[in-house]
């Protein structure tokens, strides 16, 4: 397989996954705000921080209010992390390889980008926001299912999986980091009802709430949630699961060792992690390390194949 | 209004399906009867079915416009096919083979001994002023002595039905994928017609092309690595590049996918560098190698000419083939055929005046209002004068252009191009058309069964280029004896 083609497949998958996760995050934040009492001032700023675009944001907007942040994260083409830009990049990558991916998948990706462009204004009002963001989420789920059901299990498919799972792992760590750091105070014995709601929102950002309940059968607790999102090998958006998938995809490719080595390093780190004793500050450090590890995986893929 | 052959306006032209007093030609009898049996609703239905098929199959061509940038347009297609009998086609086929064989010998001679110039059959000035002659190719001897492996020649008929060659495209001719797709669309839309006729298939083009390209491989291996080199997704023929690569199971590459090391061409794959044997290149000579030609080319591969000269890779068509794709050279083709093959041309040229010769130039200028004047090195119908339709100012402008640079112009009398019934709304109207068959040359020469029929959709127009509002038809070569 041509390196260029592999590169486009990989990035197409990453951008699609990024668009979906960003949409999920905004979706959940919107809902969370409705549940919190007026006195709790929970901002939109963490959403901006999540994709590390704080500076870009304040170059263009004065305050991180709801309208500005939504505009910035969804429709603002000047923000490289905006959903509209992720979809445009996904589309551009798909367009170049449209003879290689199943043609229905290209049509869906093209359509998803067009719809998102048309939805640009209505996403700003809360009433329409749910539908607009849901279209992005469902759109990517459809494309994922379509590719899953139609693509040959060859190198191209392996690169698709690599892109998707690496991006997902990255987004999961970002969500845990930002959510836990800025939204949530250190857990104390007397957990308030609102803490509960906020932790639930972390799970919901990752569509993990139901699965958490089924798996853990526990009340919402910080340590258990972190454990679930980071270490649970049965939950498909957990870090451990994503890493296993990355290793699985790489094993289908020539010369897998450098990539697998990097993935193993992160796995070791995760295994040694005791989430119950993880204080907030330490958690932030750990996540920094994990993200660095994911960057190393990406670099290994890049050097090895592209 | 459904199709009524009685009221079909034929005009003073040769019509492909209808003869004399609105009678279907023998080969078209069944088709015309069938079309007459269709109601308006049927016709609209078939037309819609065809355009849906084209959309679903994703048959597009790219147009570049100032306002909108590059856009994909659905391929324009007319559902009434054009029919040629096998007996007539066989003669055309022989003529094309003869012509391309001679043209390849001519190119090979120009880059080597130049005996045709020494023998004064063509003037040396022809070469000196040729924009497409590449001195870098001198002394090279490609396999089988073949330079233009893929040739697309444009044929037209005059009012008597005689086929003429209008031009030969020896650089990067396009259109063959549309010929193949037109047939697929017809089969989807009119399966019942295929039962009535014995229509010769066109499908084996991709495998003929693949076999021919395999033959060119410098390495003697079971499965040579063949790639199609495209300028990229913004090229107007990108659909075709992708289509042919797909049909042949070859990699579709852009310049940056290839790299030359020690005069060997490699492509960058996820497994590392992998040697390439044959490149079906769809990039013009000028852009193919920034080391050898245009330095600013972002499309080409630095060093590819070195690799080709060293004999480590084959290029189809060979660089420099365009020297014979020149409207002045065209005028000499009958002499070229006689010189190399010692045969009389089987397919005639359209009579062509070479403005570089004073007598002919004077004749052209005196009769400018009857002439079609063409620049020597343009394609796509650009920069032409159609004398009878032009304004006085345009004609005067061309007289000045000819006087300033006579080598760059040829002129031909205005031909009355043949027509065929074409579906306009729900009735059949006569529209002008041409035919582009494709000729593959390797150790052997083969010609497509028929070719791409292009039709000028505007009434009275003879401009068939899809970039200028042309459409297309499926071309049937039918066996009337079987």
TrEMBL record, chain A:
Residues 1-306 form the DUF403 domain. This is DUF403 domain-containing protein. It comes from Alteromonas halophila.
TrEMBL record, chain B:
Gene3D superfamilies: 3.30.1490.270, 3.40.50.11290. Residues 81-456 form the Circularly permuted ATP-grasp type domain. It holds the Pfam family CP_ATPgrasp_2. InterPro entries: ATP-dep_Glu-Cys_Ligase-2, CP_ATPgrasp_2, UCP005522. SUPFAM superfamilies: Glutathione synthetase ATP-binding domain-like. PANTHER family: BLR5612 PROTEIN (PTHR34595), SLL1039 PROTEIN (PTHR34595:SF7). This is Circularly permuted ATP-grasp type 2 domain-containing protein.
């Amino acid at each position: 397989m041509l390196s260029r083609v592999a590169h486009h497949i990989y990035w197409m998958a990453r951008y699609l996954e990024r668009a979906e996760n960003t949409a999920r995050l905004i979706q959940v934040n919107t809902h969370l705000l409705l549940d919190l009492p007026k006195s709790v001032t929970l901002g939109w700023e963490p959403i901006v921080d999540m994709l590390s675009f704080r500076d870009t944001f304040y170059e263009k907007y004065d305050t991180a209010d709801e309208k500005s942040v939504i505009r910035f994260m969804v429709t603002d083409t000047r923000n490289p992390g905006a959903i509209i830009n992720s979809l445009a990049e996904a589309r551009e990558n798909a367009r170049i390889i449209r003879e290689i991916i199943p043609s229905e998948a290209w049509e869906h990706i093209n359509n998803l980008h067009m719809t998102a462009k048309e939805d640009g204004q209505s996403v700003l009002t809360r009433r329409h926001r749910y539908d607009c963001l849901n279209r992005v989420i469902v759109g990517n789920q459809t494309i994922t299912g379509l590719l899953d059901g139609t693509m040959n299990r060859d190198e191209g498919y392996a690169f698709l999986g690599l892109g998707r799972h690496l991006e997902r792992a990255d987004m999961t760590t970002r969500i845990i980091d930002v959510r836990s750091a800025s939204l949530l105070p250190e857990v104390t014995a007397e957990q308030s009802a609102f803490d509960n709601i906020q932790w639930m929102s972390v799970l919901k950002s990752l569509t993990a709430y139901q699965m958490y309940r089924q798996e853990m059968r526990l009340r919402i607790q910080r340590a258990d949630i972190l454990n679930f999102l980071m270490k649970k090998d049965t939950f498909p958006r957990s870090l451990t699961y994503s890493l296993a998938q990355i290793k699985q995809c790489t094993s289908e490719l020539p010369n897998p060792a450098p990539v697998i080595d990097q993935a193993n390093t992160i796995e070791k780190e995760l295994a040694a992690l005791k989430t119950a004793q993880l204080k907030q500050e330490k958690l932030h450090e750990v996540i920094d390390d994990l993200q660095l590890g994911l960057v190393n995986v990406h670099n290994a893929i890049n050097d090895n194949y592209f | 209004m459904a199709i009524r052959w009685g009221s079909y306006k034929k005009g003073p032209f040769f019509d492909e399906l209808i003869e004399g007093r609105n009678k279907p030609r023998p080969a078209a009898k069944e088709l015309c009867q069938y079309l007459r049996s269709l109601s308006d609703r049927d016709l609209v239905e078939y037309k819609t079915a065809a355009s849906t098929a084209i959309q679903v199959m994703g048959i597009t061509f790219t147009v570049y416009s100032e306002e909108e940038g590059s856009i994909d347009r659905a391929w324009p297609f007319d559902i009434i096919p054009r029919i040629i009998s096998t007996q007539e086609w066989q003669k055309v086929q022989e003529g094309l083979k003869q012509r391309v064989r001679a043209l390849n010998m001519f190119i090979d001679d120009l880059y080597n001994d130049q005996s045709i110039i020494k023998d004064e059959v063509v003037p040396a000035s022809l070469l000196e002023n040729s924009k497409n002659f590449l001195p870098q190719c001198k002394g090279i001897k490609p396999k089988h002595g073949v330079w233009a492996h893929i040739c697309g020649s444009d044929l037209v008929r005059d009012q008597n039905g005689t086929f003429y060659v209008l031009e030969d495209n020896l650089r990067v001719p396009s259109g063959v994928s549309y010929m193949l797709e037109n047939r697929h669309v017809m089969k989807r839309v009119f399966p019942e017609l295929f039962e009535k006729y014995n229509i010769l298939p066109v499908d084996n083009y991709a495998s003929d092309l693949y076999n021919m390209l395999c033959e060119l491989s410098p390495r003697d291996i079971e499965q040579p690595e063949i790639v199609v080199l495209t300028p990229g997704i913004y090229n107007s023929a990108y659909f075709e590049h992708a289509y042919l690569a797909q049909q042949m199971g070859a990699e579709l590459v852009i310049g940056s996918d290839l790299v030359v090391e020690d005069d060997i061409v490699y492509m960058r794959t996820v497994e590392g560098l992998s040697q390439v044997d044959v490149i079906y290149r769809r990039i013009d000579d000028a852009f193919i190698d920034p080391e050898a030609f245009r330095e600013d080319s972002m499309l080409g591969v630095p060093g590819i000419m070195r690799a080709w000269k060293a004999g480590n890779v084959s290029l189809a068509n060979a660089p420099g083939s365009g020297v014979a794709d020149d409207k002045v050279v065209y005028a000499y083709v009958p002499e070229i055929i006689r010189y190399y093959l010692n045969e009389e041309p089987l397919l005639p040229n359209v009579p062509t005046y070479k403005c570089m010769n004073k007598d002919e130039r004077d004749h052209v200028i005196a009769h400018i209002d009857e002439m079609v004047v063409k620049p020597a090195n343009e394609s796509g119908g650009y920069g032409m004068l159609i004398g009878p339709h032009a304004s006085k100012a345009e004609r005067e402008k061309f007289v000045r252009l000819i006087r300033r640079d006579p080598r760059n112009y040829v002129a031909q009398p205005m031909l009355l191009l043949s027509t065929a019934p074409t579906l306009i709304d729900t009735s059949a109207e006569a529209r002008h058309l041409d035919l582009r068959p494709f000729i593959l040359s390797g150790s052997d020469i083969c010609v497509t069964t028929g070719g791409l029929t292009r039709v000028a959709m505007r009434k009275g127009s003879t401009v068939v280029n899809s970039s200028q509002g042309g459409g297309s038809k499926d071309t049937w070569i039918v066996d009337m004896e079987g």
